[in-house]
Amino acid sequence: MTAQLEQLDLDSEKLEGAELTEPAFPLDFERNYTLKEFLLLDLPEDDYDYELLRGKLRVRKKGGLSAEHGKITGRLLQQLNNFLDAAPNLGLAYDQAACTLGVADPEASWVEPDVSFVAAGRTPAHFKGPLPVAPDFVIEVNSPTDTTEKIQEKMDTYLAAGVKLVWSVYLVSKFVIVYRLNETRRDLYGLSDVLDGGEVLPGFKLDVQKLFD
User: For site-directed labelling of 19, which of 49, 59, 172, 192 has its Cα 20 to 30 A away?
Assistant: First the structure.
């Protein structure tokens, strides 16, 4: 059954493994970057994803290098698209689409969520580049090297930008933590639980067990 997160021990090493070793590349993780400065950085083509979280440069091991990460992400996107195919007027799902959050510096963000959904009518009919609005719904499949602190920082960034619903998926421990905009409570869904889209995607449901089978 679902449980409130405050009741649980979420030590990152117990849940997901060792802490990430930063790439051997001279980057300043302490200073604040504007969105323009971040986009002009000469970032290396390596095994890391680089993002900007409220003005701070952040890095994580590419989840796509993990077959398990790819499998779970693929299932989530497929289930969401199947649901939207039956209700095409609701909006569109995106696969690792870059988006800008809080465009006003100095706390702008550039993120690439594993799966995102934007409700119909919130974006121009045709646009190029990153999503021009914050998604309504985001799913992040956490890598084993992601620490609790880094995961929470990203969840806070999404909520501060107005994302209404966030699912944070833990591969190793096989559970999902659900965040909702303007709610301090965070719920943990285990293998016997059913996730739902709430007010963002009414009727969208997903068995946690099937996600990890």
Answer: 192
